[in-house]
Design goal:
Largest sheet: 8 strands, mixed
Radius of gyration: 23 Å
Distance between the termini: 53 Å
Shape: globular
Amino acid sequence: MNLYSEYYRGFGADLNKIAIEQEGGSNWTYLDLHNKSGALAHKLHDLGVRKGGRVSVQVGKSIEAVALYLGCLRLGAVFHPLNPAYTLSELRFFLRDASPDLLVCRPESEAEMSGLVTELKIPSVCLGVNQDGSLLEGLNAGIDFETVACEQDDAAALLYSSGTTGTPKGIVLSHRNLEANSTVLVKAWGFDSGDVLLHALPIFHVHGLFVALGCVFMAGASMQWLGAYDPVKARELLPKSTVMMGVPTYFVRLLADPEFGEQDVQSIRVFISGSAPLLAETFEQFEERTGHRILERYGMTETNMNTSNPLVGERKPGTVGPPLPGVSVRVVGADGKNLEFGEIGDLQVKGDNVFQKYWQLPEKTAEAFTDDGYFDTGDKALIEADGYVSIVGREKDMIISGGLNVYPKEIELLVDQWPGVIESAVIGVPHPDFGEAVVAVVVMEQGCELDENAIAGSLKESLANFKLPKRFLVIDELPRNSMGKVGKAGMREMYSKLFAD
């Protein structure tokens, strides 16, 4: 199988149907996507990429970038998307670890990247958001490309996550993983060819790349395309859409407009939220204002989607619904035994949606799976008697800010290097816009003061903006338990009102 072949079947018989409509730009039909992805597959092959080779991509959001993703699939190559906000120091690790056959970067960052790609001996081309860049030079969209046959367990994508150590892990997702999840979601969320998805999500992330695009392509639906989320533009496009997917921040920002209400959502059949916990308060305010109960679901990079509140049936605020068809979930205690309904423990999942391995990390892969094949998510959860799952916390201290993952250890290592800092603890606290805000709690040497502007400026050289602490709090000592472990849970509670009105 090849995931693209499954997408292509979903496109439908009329390839002249509009697949993507972009504001102020040309519309793309399914035939356009097919031809451009084929031309890009040819170009990648000419640049030395072969089946199983990795293509690292750090570009802005564009339809050409979608065609590049599809071209990688058609060639049997492994698509490795990277957040455009990553700095050179962050990219060095990803590129060294992934060892790609090709890097595709932005035209505006090509000069800056030249030293790094020379150092790592990686060929590179560029792709811009305005139909520009060396990747597009010499394309012959009239030449068809025969999609490469793949095994269902062949790698289709490589994305990086991380644990509390701060060392990122490459997550290998297969053609079967992505196909199985998209097929289930199309049915679970009622997608058909008449749907129009408001696509405002980034496409370097599971949510916008695999969930959103997968549902549209498998159903032969259409998209309204936003290069970046803007609540004003989103509100303008809602009357032309039937579905909106977003992180909780998107819905909070819509509600911030006092004029937003029922008149804007007459054509919408469902709002879907994920990538971060949706506050019950947001759920209730949105229903009061629009009459819509947001459908919240739960997934992660290693698994795509695991559970979902139902399209038809009760959507419970504060829960992520029952497991999706084909996905098994369970909650176990410290002894590995299943817990009773309502008891909090470690959430484990199993299904065709679950990844097979961490890239070049066999020991980490073995640690992540139980003897009977369940993946340990690292999340704390409970399952109610009716099957609904509630995520109550994270065993790992990962922060989700604006729908993006932030790993405290990575930031702590940099903060601890600052002159006068004895130690630090980075936590996430509730934020009305971002869901969670990054906060650094710092212990200073006696007689030293922390210059917040200076340390923030220094961190900006090494960290993407979404990882930067919103606040630095200086305290005498970090709270610890009897084993010496820093009590981050207590600090999160202590500073939970830091950004409250």
